[in-house]
Design a protein that fits this description.
- This protein has eight helices and 14 strands.
- It is α+β, with helices and mostly antiparallel strands.
- α1 crosses α6, α2 packs across α3 and α4 crosses α5.
């Protein structure tokens, strides 16, 4: 296993970096949410835009979902056509058009039965109401459920339908014997409901950026904390091994924690008294240009300058990197101020596809 961490002690401000709103993804306030991957998934699909327009760099994960927000979530998720406004209290809502679409599609009936002339746009959505919204939107068949607390709910059949479809697991893990029908739905919970309903890809995204981190885990994060955070993001590592880094110390002084094609490099010992912890990462494809099992998919590696994995390595040079140069490790390298990309083979071939990316502080480890 080879890992080369590019020497880069300068953090530069680079104009025109492609990628998402912050180092960990689309939003700045969801990194501690257990629903992080679901939030990122619905953002990638355009189902959510954020909670603080026009900047929209926050998601407000613990805020409750209102009925007008629910309308926009579902209209974007299902790409519903425009509808006709009928409710008497929705005209002033910024979500008015989506509320009309939802009504025309038969997904909402209103909030004041039997007349149902109002929508109550700013009212909070409960978990039982959410079940009916989703059941109608997805046209799920009614079903019974084993939840012990829904017997008195008028939405019981829809809650059962949601459970049968695997969209809800319950509200009291790990037992999950209850549904908590009267509880309000938070925005982070709604992200998970929508992600399961639409079968969205929730793999963590890695954004290459000058802030130097791995999926939002900052370099020099202490070893134990770094492994804990990364395991939470990527799951159980496929490999976790001690290695020696040349020119530092002879016994193992580094730790390579690997998820398929992704390797986190953690310095565990430094006799010079420098900081230990996460010092870099590398993502590389196999000999067939495929990511190895156990890690993030190739389309979740977001490079700057509109580059993508498997682009010609010559494109990286044109984007502002240094000239393509062969290394003594058996591949071609293009360096940027804060990361490197590479392709297999010692021959300088501008058409060779990018098959690896790496970012970190100055270590050259085999």
């Amino acid at each position: 296993m080879r890992v080369r961490i590019v020497i880069s002690l300068l953090v530069l401000v680079v104009v025109g970096i492609a990628g998402t709103a912050n180092s960990a993804g689309f939003f700045t306030d969801d990194d501690d949410s257990i629903h992080l991957r679901a939030i990122e998934a619905i953002a990638a699909e355009g189902i959510t835009r954020g909670c603080n327009p026009p900047t929209n760099d926050r998601y407000c994960p613990t805020s409750t979902v209102t009925r007008e927000q629910m309308a926009s979530f579902l209209v974007r998720a299902l790409d519903l056509p425009a509808g006709t406004a009928t409710f008497t209290d929705a005209a002033d809502s910024i979500h008015a058009a989506d509320i009309a679409s939802l009504a025309t599609a038969g997904i909402t009936k209103g909030c004041n039965p039997p007349d149902n002339t109002r929508y109550c746009p700013t009212s909070t959505v409960t978990r039982e109401q959410m079940a009916s919204f989703l059941t109608r939107a997805l046209k799920l068949p009614p079903a019974t459920s084993t939840f012990t607390d829904i017997g008195d709910s008028v939405h019981a059949a829809d809650i059962g339908a949601l459970a049968a479809a695997g969209i809800t697991k319950g509200c009291n893990p790990p037992d999950n014997t209850r549904y908590c029908p009267k509880n309000p739905v938070t925005r982070e919970q709604m992200a998970s409901f929508l992600t399961r309903a639409l079968n969205l890809d929730t793999s963590t995204r890695i954004v290459v950026n000058p802030e130097m981190d791995l999926a939002g885990v900052e370099l020099l994060t202490p070893e134990t904390e770094a492994v804990t955070q990364l395991t939470r993001l990527f799951g159980t590592p496929t490999e976790d091994t001690p290695v020696s880094c040349p020119y530092i110390v002879d016994p193992p002084n580094m730790r390579h924690v690997r998820w398929g094609s992704l390797i986190a490099v953690i310095r565990t010992v430094d006799p010079g008294g420098n900081e230990t912890g996460l010092v870099g990462w590398r993502y590389a494809l196999d000999a067939s240009s495929n990511p190895e099992p156990g890690g993030p998919p190739i389309d979740h590696i977001e490079l700057p300058f509109d580059l993508e994995m498997l682009d010609p390595i010559g494109d990286a040079t044109a984007a502002g990197g240094s000239a393509i140069r062969p290394t003594n490790h058996g591949w071609m390298m293009v360096d940027f101020p804060y990361f490197s990309v590479e392709a297999s083979g010692l021959t300088v071939d501008p058409t060779a596809p990018i098959d690896g990316v790496q970012q970190g502080y100055g270590f050259d480890c085999e």
